[in-house]
């Protein structure tokens, strides 16, 4: 079985990306969107491992500030930030 960090990208709905645009504008070169559909957002983090937890927390804060109804679930050990609405 492939590791979660090697998981293939899922569907990306441009309308869903609008919900997290403020976070994507800041993390332009730091995260890669792997999936954005049906209220689930998956990202792969491209940066220093020592900054990963802080970057995940910052992304959560930005998203919650702009969309307080979003439920967040993170998987830092998999180099992914998973967000479900």
Can you tell me about this structure?
The chain has 85 residues and is α+β, with helices and mostly antiparallel strands. The chain has a single domain, classed as Alpha-Beta Complex (Aspartate Aminotransferase, domain 1), CATH 3.90.1150. It is 29% helix and 27% strand. The protein has three helices and four strands; from the N terminus they run ααββαββ. The chain has helices at 14-17, 21-26, 52-66; strands at 31-37, 40-45, 71-75, 80-84. The chain has a four-stranded antiparallel beta sheet. The termini are far apart. The model is unreliable at 75-79 (pLDDT under 50).
Which secondary structure elements does this structure contain, and how are they paired or packed?
Layout: H1 14-17, H2 21-26, E1 31-37, E2 40-45, H3 52-66, E3 71-75, E4 80-84
Antiparallel strand pairs: 1-2, 2-4, 3-4
């Amino acid at each position: 079985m492939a590791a979660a960090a090697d998981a293939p990208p899922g569907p990306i709905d441009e309308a869903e990306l609008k919900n997290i645009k403020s976070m994507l504008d800041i993390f332009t070169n730091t995260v890669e969107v792997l999936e954005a559909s049906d209220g689930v957002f998956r990202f792969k983090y491209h940066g220093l491992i020592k900054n990963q937890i802080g970057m995940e927390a910052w992304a959560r804060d930005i998203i919650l500030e702009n969309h307080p109804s979003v439920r967040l679930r993170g998987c830092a050990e998999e180099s992914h930030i998973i967000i479900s609405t």
